[in-house]
Specification:
By secondary structure, the chain is α+β, with helices and mostly antiparallel strands. It has two domains: 3-78; 84-140, Archaeosine Trna-guanine Transglycosylase, Chain: A, domain 4 (Roll), CATH 2.30.130.60. Helix content is 24%, strand content 31%. The mean pLDDT is 89.
């Protein structure tokens, strides 16, 4: 069941977004925040009181040990992310879109990162210091014929 997120939990996620991805608070405060089943966090419009939807708006995080940003989050806020992102070249972008992981030397904090090709925000990955582990959902994998 969808419910408004607790203020403390919302503040923790916003703090994570500010510190991890360098977003500005004003970019996140303009949405209504909800918590759904399976520790999913949604942003969207004000909830309609006559119905109780399972989800409303976009799922932007899954909460586990740490917040895990979704592809929706990276694509929605990607142009405003100015920290902990990786710019991929054409070959790397094709591999990521096929669902592959990458080995690459980069200077980024370990943890979740945003993947970008030029100015296009692709999705989320996890950087462990050696491997960029693709976190884009399998349903979004594709073969790119041209870039």
């Amino acid at each position: 069941m969808l419910k408004l997120i607790e203020k403390e939990k919302k503040d923790d996620i916003i703090k994570y977004c500010l510190e991890r991805f360098g977003l500005r608070q004003k970019n996140l405060e303009r949405y209504h925040w909800y918590e759904g089943s399976k520790n999913r966090i949604f942003i969207g419009p004000e909830k309609v009181k006559r119905i109780n939807p399972e989800s409303l708006g976009l799922c932007i995080f899954r909460l586990d040990k740490t917040p895990k940003p979704t592809t929706n989050f990276i694509q929605l806020f990607g142009e405003k992310i100015n920290k902990n992102y990786i710019i991929l070249n054409k070959t790397e972008t094709v591999k990521i879109c096929k669902g592959e992981n990458l080995k690459k030397k980069i200077d980024v904090e370990a943890g979740f990162v945003a993947l970008k090709y030029k100015s296009i925000s692709l999705g989320c990955a996890h950087w462990n210091g050696e491997i960029i582990k693709n976190q884009i959902p399998k349903s979004k994998f594709c073969n790119i014929n041209f870039l």
